[in-house]
Every structure is written in C-alpha cells, then in structure tokens.
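anyone else get weird line breaks when pasting these?? whatever heres mine. first is seq + tokens for prot A
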Amino acid sequence: FTFVLCFTVPCVAVSERTKASHLFGLAIGSCVTVGGFAIGGISGGSLNPAVSFGIASAQVLNGGFFYKALIYSLLEFAGGAAAAGVFKFTHEVETALPEGKIEA
C-alpha cells in the first residue's frame, strides 16, 4: 500500500507530464480508501509509521508486543523508498536539472 500511495502522489500532483490538475485528490483519496480496506484486517489500519507506533503503543497496554511497529515501519519506509526509486526512473527527464542551472 505504501508503495502505491507514495508513487501515486508525485505522479498525479507533482509531475508535469502526468499531472491530473482536477482529479488528483480523488486519485490519492482512492488509494487511501482501498489501502485501508485491503490492510485493515491484517494490520489494524496501519497506513504509515505514526499509525503503526500508535497502534502498537495501545496494544502494549493490553499485553501486546511493540516490535510489530518496528517491522511495519521498516516495511513502510522500504515501500516509500521503492516508490521514490521507481518514480525517479520513470520520470527521469523531470528530475534532471536543466543545463547550466546550479542547484542551491
């Protein structure tokens, strides 16, 4: 889920080539909704590291284990990094600096 969301946001809201100026909110919201339904029963709706730590902290009070938050968070960060890599690869022309322009 994290990969899909982290790839969709730059594609529909940032990229000049694939920008959806009127429907980007619908695309991003649909990713969140589908992700919530898809993983809700598995992870309790852990959609980002902050939610993972919140759910795990609440479960510790009921005798749960906190290490699950670390596992979920690690996988969410990996999904985000993979999405960034795929976006950079598929939109390489946009991320390159123009000739003669110096990055500040």
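and prot B, same format (seq, then tokens)
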Amino acid sequence: SSGINAEWPLRPGSSQVCKMFLVRFCPHDLFTNTKADLGACKHETHDVKIREVYKTSTRYKRMGYEQTFLRTLEGIVDDMERKIRRQHERLEHDERYMKQVETII
C-alpha cells in the first residue's frame, strides 16, 4: 500500500499541493510584509493532513521534494547574504563620504 487514501480529493503529488510544505514549511510564509517577502505560493494547498499522508507513504523521501526544499532554502540564504553584503558596502561608502564632508566643513 502506498499509504495514500483514495477518498482524499488531493494527493501529495498533486500539482495543487505545495511540496515544500509537505517536507516542513512553505518558504513563501517567511518574511511576509518585509522587503524579503517571496510573494504568494503558486501552490494553493498547504494541508497538514496531506503532509502526514506523504510522510507515511512509500514515496516519502523518494520524490526529490526534500532536495528541492533544501536548494530553495539555500537560495534564499544566498540572496539574503548578498543583500546584507550590498548594504554593508553601501554603509561603508556612506561613512567614507560623511568623513570627507566633515573634513571640508
């Protein structure tokens, strides 16, 4: 048995189901209403019951969802680190400019 209940309208593999939510959580739920907001998830279904069906099925950890989840989170971390680095560079530039202005005044 695959562990998937035929009575359910959606199965873990359905295109409507967020595979990242099946693994742990949907990254689109992170940083809402901030500059780092990822926007709405393109998958409309984030259902704990479907996650449990997936985790008890024979497909658990065999579909590549976990690897995709990890790559997505690594990409988010890389983007955040790049933004932080740019802001630090901008801050250093502004501080050097202010020191030059102070020496003129």
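btw re prot B: The helical segments are 19-23, 48-55, 65-104. The CA atoms of residues 26 and 76 lie 12 Å apart.
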